[in-house]
């Protein structure tokens, strides 16, 4: 075939109305598949969120932490599955034979399974994290050098946001030890220093009244604070320890509020809180 015949064939193809109609309908079908996949992802996400994350009140006891975590995980799995099916349908409309593609994907997946051992480890670890309820979305945890609030748990990675805003993306396979601060009540510990000249019984009496009133004002506390007694005899102060059981992860805020309340209460009662002082003597020649 010479050049003239080749370009003539091309010209005839471009002028073929049936060809352009087929291309147009193929494009319409691909666009429809893509839009339908996006709508299905959004619809299934809403359904999962309604029945898993925002589960209505019922006679059965529901762990909100776990249902929220499972809801996000199921949403991700459904999204991947719908996108995969949409890609296969689009390839079929374009004209690809899916039989050899699927067979090749199976062989490729088997090869990747042998080579990507870290990926398999991530997936297995992620499954056991969710199955054993080690932590859930919304929990405050510490693992390795990272700590923060869990934003997402997937089969491969876990996302933790630090209180300063950094987002840590951690492969599940690297999570070997986890400290979960959100599953049980916390304890706020406040050490109060008083001067040696103060009478301890009087100070404890003032503290008891002050803490009783503070408990009524703070909903974060589970029960009234306790005064454990003298914790330490320092160089210039007597340290009295106060503890308060709080709701999970509220101990930092409660401790700060307690310190402010105790400071104001001691000022009103005339109780001295010692602080470093420098006394100088000037020797004069007589």
TrEMBL record:
User: Where do the Mechanosensitive ion channel MscS domain residues begin and end?
Assistant: 119-182
* MF (Gene Ontology): mechanosensitive monoatomic ion channel activity
Q: Which GO terms describe its cellular component?
A: plasma membrane
Q: Which InterPro entries match?
A: LSM_dom_sf (IPR010920), MS_channel_1st (IPR049142), MS_channel_C (IPR049278), MscS_beta-dom_sf (IPR023408), MscS_channel_2nd (IPR006685), MscS_channel_C_sf (IPR011066), MscS_channel_TM-2 (IPR011014), YbiO_bact (IPR045276)
* UniProt-annotated location(s): Cell membrane
Which stretches make up the Mechanosensitive ion channel transmembrane helices 2/3 domain? 76-117
Gene3D superfamilies to which the protein is assigned, alphabetical: 1.10.287.1260, 2.30.30.60, 3.30.70.100
Q: Which UniProt keywords apply?
A: Cell membrane, Membrane, Transmembrane, Transmembrane helix
Q: Which Pfam families match?
A: MS_channel_1st, MS_channel_2nd, MS_channel_3rd
Membrane-crossing segments per the record: 23-48, 69-91, 97-116
- On the tree of life, the source organism's domain of life is Bacteria
The UniProt entry lists membrane topology as: Multi-pass membrane protein
Q: Where is the Mechanosensitive ion channel MscS C-terminal domain?
A: 189-273
Q: Which family does it belong to?
A: Belongs to the MscS (TC 1.A.23) family.
Protein task: May play a role in resistance to osmotic downshock.
Q: Which named protein is this?
A: Mechanosensitive ion channel protein MscS
Q: Which organism is it from?
A: Tepidibacillus decaturensis
